[in-house]
Every structure is written in C-alpha cells, then in structure tokens.
C-alpha cells in the first residue's frame, strides 16, 4: 500500500502582465497565431425567435433546411407531429456527417424507426430545441464539418 502525503501550501498570486504584441511566446518551437475567420457566403443563423429564424439576415417563418452552401425550403415537413420516414430519407441525398433537428421551443425526440435510414447510412442525428440547433450548426459549420440543420415550425 502506497500513501501519498502532500504539504498544504498557501495559494500564490502573480501580478497580471498587460497583453502586448510581444506577448506571443515560443513554446517548444511552436507559435500560436490567431486570425479572424472569413466565412464568405456560408449560410449561418443570425437570429431566431419563437416563430422564425434568420439566416444571413433573411427571415424564415416555416420549416427549412440549412446547409453551408444554401437554404432549402423544399423539405415539406409541416411540424414535429407530422414527421415520417420519408422526411428523414430526404436527407440521404445530401450526405451530411450530422443532421441537427431543431424541434421548436422545446426538445423533442422522434421515434428511432423514423430516422433508421440515416442511422444505417452512418449519418448522425441530433435533436435539440431550435435555438440550440442554430448555435450548434454555426459552430460545426465554422469547424468545416458537413452539417445540415432542419428547423421545424
């Protein structure tokens, strides 16, 4: 049996140094360089409310599908309770890594049999409320992931 004893030490505080351009330090031969990202024409959620979302400043008040390259309104989902297998099979042609399903003001989960085709194709499916889906989509797109957000109203 091994017993470790540690001597309790008083916390030490170090004065803050101002951050300057010369504050970048070399650590084991590597540098940290920060750059402002320019997403160009990438479609990002810019706002959301109880009855709408905004993508790149354009308001949408009905169910939509958002990809990095485009916003599609040809997904005919009338609402969460109307979802069936064909609504989820629609995403197979898009071949995303992950589908984010925004289910409105509260998080709801469809029956797994409805999205079985996505699972079988290796496409991840995450259900969340609409605000969380919008935020998660923006983060994943910024990381360069192939993500699709399906927003229900």
Brief characterization of the structure:
The protein has 153 residues and is of the alpha/beta class.
C-alpha geometry: globular
Give the class-level CATH name: Alpha Beta
Number of helices: 3
* Major beta sheet, strand line-up: 5-4-8-6-7
Which radius of gyration do the C-alpha atoms yield?
A: 22 Å
Counting helices, strands and paired strands, the structural category is alpha/beta
Mean pLDDT: 84
**Number of distinct beta strands:** 8
Description:
The chain is α/β, with parallel strands linked by helices and 153 residues long. It has a single domain (38-151), classed as 3-Layer(aba) Sandwich (Hypothetical Protein Mth938, Chain: A). 15% of the residues lie in helices and 20% in strands. It contains three helices and eight strands; from the N terminus they run E-E-E-E-E-H-E-H-E-H-E. The protein has helices spanning 85-89, 116-120, 130-142, and strands spanning 45-48, 53-55, 58-60, 64-66, 71-72, 98-102, 124-128, 147-151. It has a five-stranded mixed sheet, with helices on one face. A hairpin with a 4-residue loop joins strand 4 (64-66) and strand 5. The termini are far apart.
